């Protein structure tokens, strides 16, 4: 967990230098309108500009989402918070057989360049945490102590 916090802090500091919070009227009109049309139920909407990309953070049904768009409005990357029921069965099976003593703490689905991954944070006891990154078919791409 300490490594993750340190990495997150470093990433935040780097992004903070390159990120600029935007007001609604500072987001390109077509991009904003297309987003609003597609995500009618979005709440807590926050826009940022990071280098040449527009990032929008928002909630839908109390789940966090992020989308990165290029200036033309093309989706570059998405991140979406999931609950355990939304995990593919292959991933749930892998966790239940190989990590049965752990509890699922957090799940995030990411899509970039047509590739979907699932990041699953597991916890056992007070200090034993793992981060698993799965591909779409349930194979572990990466595992590390959190």
Commentary on this structure:
This protein has helices spanning 2-18, 29-38, 89-98; strands at residues 19-22, 43-50, 53-60, 63-69, 75-82, 103-112, 115-124, 128-135, 140-145. It contains 3 helices and 9 strands. A hairpin with a 2-residue loop joins strand 2 and strand 3 (53-60). By secondary structure, it is an alpha+beta fold. A 9-stranded antiparallel sheet has the order 1-2-3-4-5-6-7-8-9. It folds into 2 domains: 1-77, no CATH class; 83-146, Nuclear Transport Factor 2, Chain: A (Roll).
Topology at a glance:
Blueprint: H1 2-18, E1 19-22, H2 29-38, E2 43-50, E3 53-60, E4 63-69, E5 75-82, H3 89-98, E6 103-112, E7 115-124, E8 128-135, E9 140-145
Can you tag this structure with a few keywords?
9 strands, alpha+beta, 146 residues, Nuclear Transport Factor 2, Chain: A, 25% helix
Short structural summary:
By secondary structure, the protein is an alpha+beta fold. The protein is built from three helices and nine strands. The chain has two domains: about 1-75, no CATH class; about 85-145, Nuclear Transport Factor 2, Chain: A (Roll), CATH 3.10.450.360.
């Amino acid at each position: 967990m300490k490594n993750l916090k340190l990495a997150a802090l470093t990433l935040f500091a780097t992004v903070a230098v390159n990120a600029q919070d935007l007001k609604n009227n500072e987001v390109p009109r077509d991009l904003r309108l297309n987003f609003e049309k597609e995500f009618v139920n979005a709440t807590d909407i926050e826009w940022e500009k990071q280098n040449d990309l527009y990032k929008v953070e928002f909630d839908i049904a109390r789940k966090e989402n992020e989308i990165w768009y290029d200036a033309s409005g093309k989706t570059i990357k998405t991140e979406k918070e999931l609950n355990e029921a939304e995990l593919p069965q292959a991933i749930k099976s892998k966790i239940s057989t190989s990590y049965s003593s752990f509890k699922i703490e957090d799940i995030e689905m990411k899509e970039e360049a047509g590739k979907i991954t699932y990041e699953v944070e597991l916890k056992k006891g007070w200090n034993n945490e793992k981060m698993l990154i799965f591909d779409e078919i349930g194979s572990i791409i990466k595992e590390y102590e959190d």
